[in-house]
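2024-03-11 09:14:02 INFO receiving multi-entity request
2024-03-11 09:14:02 INFO entity count = two
2024-03-11 09:14:03 INFO echoing inputs for audit
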Amino acid sequence: MKKHILLVEDESLVAMLLEDCLVELGYEVAASASNVPAALAALAREAIDLAVLDVNLGGTMSFPIADALAERGISFIFVTGYGQAGIPERFRDRATVQKPFHIRELHAALLQSQVPRLLEQQGPSPRHP
Amino acid sequence: MNIVMPEQESDAAKERIYQALLQTTPDLLYVFDLQHRFIYANDALLNMWGMSWDEAKGKTCLELGYEPWHAAMHDEEIDRVVATRQPVRGDVPFPHKDKGTRIYDYIFTPVIGLDGEVEAIAGSTRDVTERQQHEQHLQLLINELNHRVKNSLVMVQSLNRQTFATATDLGDACEKFESRLLALSNAHNVLTRENWHSADILELTRGAAAPYESDDGRRFEVQGESCRLDPRRALALALALHELCSNAVRYGALSVPHGIVRVSWERRRIEGDDWIEWRWQEVGGPTVQSPARHGFGSRLLERGLKHDLGGDVSLAFDPEGVAFRIVMPLRADVAQELR
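2024-03-11 09:21:47 INFO inference complete, emitting structure
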């Protein structure tokens, strides 16, 4: 079964590129949104397995979407032109793809995002006395 | 001392010169004794504190009301200057009496006595708030520039993929790719002229049509008033225009001598919001047939722009001519602007 993807990207040309790449990698783009409200609405409406988030949506950051996804336990990756520095601490462990990207990097990030997040599920690791 | 004066001039005259130098500089100048007490403060420093010299004379930073951490930091630095006989430099925020919190860059330097020991500590402090703000602004600009470059590159990546992935004729694809790249570049020019704040829909339309206009200027009938678009919508519209133009030249109204294109737009107010309706209508061309395969152009026009423009788009291959219509909201802050 193909995984259903929520794609959030405000630039149509880039969204088209990502859609093509995702389809080529065997995913199905279940919903495509260009802003936070549309993405949250799509999240409430569709059965989403995985999300691909542009960081800067025409001046608004996509982090509220990332929070909503994290709350639901849905994996996601960032695609950004800003680099790791533009991403808040709480999402630093999430896979990030830098624009422009090679389809292999997108593939690797998507796979990495689907590895169970063991540390989080087990709680904080024990400290040495 | 290096002040060159006739022998007979008094110490008092030298004193007047030093006073003039010390009191006219905007920098804060001061001297501590070995017990960390102020034994000199110039007017700039007294103004910053909002104190007279009588109030400040002989007091330490702590006694003058500096925050304990701040006073302790300077105590440690003064001790360090005495112990190492080397200057110390730092920067610190401090509340100026009138200007609020400012950032100060300071240097404490040892004053060496005749016996070779440190006998006092002289300090010089400069308000670097504006310089620091300037540096931060510069850093922001660099980050933004970097972002824009990356964004442009990924758009080129997309154009490349959209053009070549489905191409059957390499020469044709190369030409399409280049002309798309130029359309993107031309839209950038319009935006750069306006400092990337907004672009005029009239200028964008005329700019995109220019390469396809005939010498007598009869191919395009453009009707609409100046109206500002934000950068993202401007880029999207410029790309749309390019696809429409190149399609018209290949298959539509501009492929025959007497065909024309009517481009018109008008602003509307719907429930308190500004919208714009933009129309492209080809007239007098060959009978239009719906394309067998939807290429990049139609995909961009039908699906991509809807995404970018945040409105409604429709592309119709009417037999009498291709018609394209966009209804999109105008961003209030940009639309209100007058040139």
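2024-03-11 09:21:48 INFO post-check: Chain B touches chain A at residues 143, 146-148, 150-151, 153-159, 161-162, 165, 230, 232, 236, 239, 299-300, 303-308, 310 (CB under 8 Å).
2024-03-11 09:21:48 INFO post-check: Chain B has a mean pLDDT of 89.
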